[in-house]
Amino acid sequence: xxxxxxxxCADITTLEVDAxxxxxxxxxxxxxxxxxxxxxxxxPELLEECRRLxxxxxxxxxxxxxxxxxxxxxxxxxxxxxxxxxxxxxDLLECCYRRSLEVxxxxxxxxxxxxxxxxxxxxxxxEKAAGIAVRTIGDFLSDHPRMEVILCCFxxxxxxxxxxxxxxxxxxx
Length: 173
Ligand code: ADP
Prior knowledge:
173 residues, 6 strands, binds adenosine-5'-diphosphate, alpha/beta, six-stranded mixed β-sheet, Macro_dom, EC 3.5.1.-, O-acetyl-ADP-ribose deacetylase activity, O-acetyl-ADP-ribose deacetylase
């Protein structure tokens, strides 16, 4: 498993993978943060395709083309807004990771890069989010031996948090 989850500090719009995951909002019409960066890099064709999807509920995932991105596809998922932790936020974040990977697997995609879903504008605590991400991805990969996942952080401090979470998860596996 070790070699199939990688933690990087990078701009997700530069990654050459089968799919990058977008931390979108329920309207799927673009926004700030990583969503804005992905739409800017992919070009207006991405927004056009997104308009036809009719939005996406929190915890779900929908796939589009990658257009001008080096990635072939974008998987749009909607993370939960952190409201203190008693509103099902952890389960919904787990759903985001699992549903995104299921959508990728249905298409036969084998390399997927995730941003740190919900930990920006949606304020989910990053330590907690990292634990959920590595556990959900790790469980999924044990049933999907051809898949590889990148956890693409946008700061060195987030990268360290995800690396620590990954190490802890690997030790207990
Ligand atoms: P959310 O609304 O789900 O919290 P944000 O886009 O606000 O989503 O933040 C999610 C994470 O994405 C944050 O850690 C943010 O720093 C990071 N991020 C922003 N731009 C990029 C990018 N170009 N590549 C990778 N990660 C990014």
